[in-house]
Amino acid sequence: MTMKLTFHGIVQGIGFRPAAQRTAKDLGVNGLVKNTGGNVSLVISAKKQALDEFVRRLIGMFDIKKYEAEEIEDIPFTDFKIVHSENDNKTPFITPD
Length: 97
Description:
27% of the residues lie in helices and 37% in strands. By secondary structure, the protein is of the alpha+beta class. Strands 4-1-3-2-5 form a 5-stranded mixed β-sheet, with helices on one face. Strand 2 and strand 3 form a beta hairpin.
């Protein structure tokens, strides 16, 4: 099963992408994660139970305001990667100093 996820909230500048990579490795989830403007987007593949646990853990670690999940056509990822950020001209939540 492959899912496209977008997390909204304070998700940039706080280690979200490395935490997602570690969590994915722990659960056997493959795919990618990237910053997209003010959000973090992921495309991940695994069994449904692992995907559900992956989302549950990330929500528990960070101040997620909302997230969107969409099942998409299966993509045969072989690992989990952090990819370069994209700017979609949206303002991210900025963490206070």
